[in-house]
Amino acid sequence: MPDATRSPAARGDAAEPAAVAELPDPPAPADVHARVVDWFAEHARDLPWRRPECTPWGVLVSEVMLQQTPVARVLPRWEEWLRRWPTPADAAAAPAAEILTVWDRLGYPRRALRLQAAAEAIVDRHGGEVPDTREELRALPGIGEYTAAAVACFAFSRPEVVVDTNIRRVHARVFSGAALPGQTYTAAQRRLAVELMPATEPDGGRTACAWNAATMELGALICTARSPQCAICPVAELCSWRAAGFPPPTEEQKTRGQAWAGTDRQVRGALMAVLRRGEPVEPEALLDGLDLPEASADQRRRCLDSLLADGLAQRTAAGVTLPQ
Ligand code: SF4
């Protein structure tokens, strides 16, 4: 019999479906809140955007950078960004080419331009101060539902419902007994996230905000997608997935990893790396010079055209450059 008290990774039998126990009743949210928030108080990473001295602008920049990129890669870029542009007004006034150069290899560089557009709107509409409500944040260009809720919560202590991939996974395992939450954020998951929020009356939403941050951290550090560390998890005794014997993910729940090699993203990234050097490059030299032997001429040209269309590159008389 598989040991249902240990995660599949810990048992070394991830490929073997475990014997599936009947799904238990989900735990009481209040019991989970207390354990996860206490664990966070002791084990949270000391990240600069979590420190009390971090400005709302610093929190906003971190949330945009972290959307598709791991913390380790974000840290140096975030520090450089805040050093150069400590306020929205500074970022709004910066040349787009410099914004993209500092973004470096964080990926999805349209985020950098959208962040600058948000900075401009903050200057125009809010006197240079990051607005403090989810609704006003959501109205900024390029700021989606998640980022608006996260900034309202983490920068302004507003008890908004914050749900990212890590939080969805913890909710799915602890409360729904599922291995993974699936690709799509469903209405049912949203309802569950709302129901799970701690009440805001007793402490003005402090526990609710801590719950958001703590659940996110638990998913990032302990309840990871591939190797959950149930042996040191603060809610192991309450976890529905563990109690059910770690049933494997259904086809619908499985997350498909994003390929990189050979994709247009890789080719676009290689083109941007050349442009970030700062010198105009003749289009043919730019396309021919890529060290990607598997990328066809058609793919190279298509990717350059898409960078031009996205405003991430520009044709000038001297050649292709970052937007001037
Ligand atoms: S919540 Fe804890 S016990 Fe449950 S799967 Fe994640 S790490 Fe394991």
Briefly summarize what is shown.
It catalyses: Hydrolyzes free adenine bases from 7,8-dihydro-8-oxoguanine:adenine mismatched double-stranded DNA, leaving an apurinic site. The chain has helices spanning 8-11, 29-43, 56-66, 71-84, 88-93, 96-103, 110-126, 134-138, 145-156, 165-176, 187-196, 206-221, 240-243, 264-275, 283-288, 297-309; strands at 314-316, 319-321.
Structural class: mainly alpha
The pLDDT mean sits at: 92
- Strand arrangement, major sheet: 1-2
**CATH class bucket of the largest domain:** Mainly Alpha
Number of helices: 16
Compute the separation of the termini in Å.
Answer: 65 Å
Shape: globular
Enter the CATH topology name of the largest domain: Endonuclease Iii, domain 2
Radius of gyration of CA atoms, rounded to a whole number: 22 Å
Low-pLDDT parts are 12-18
Bound compounds, each kind once, are:
iron/sulfur cluster
CATH architecture of the largest domain, please? Orthogonal Bundle
Which range does the strand content fall in?
A: under 5%
**Which H/E pattern describes the elements?**
HHHHHHHHHHHHHHHHEE
Largest pleated sheet? 2 strands, antiparallel
**Helix-residue proportion:** 40-55%
Domains, number: 2
CATH superfamily of the largest domain: Helix-hairpin-Helix base-excision DNA repair enzymes (C-terminal)
Give a count of the beta strands, DSSP E runs of length 2 or more.
Answer: 2
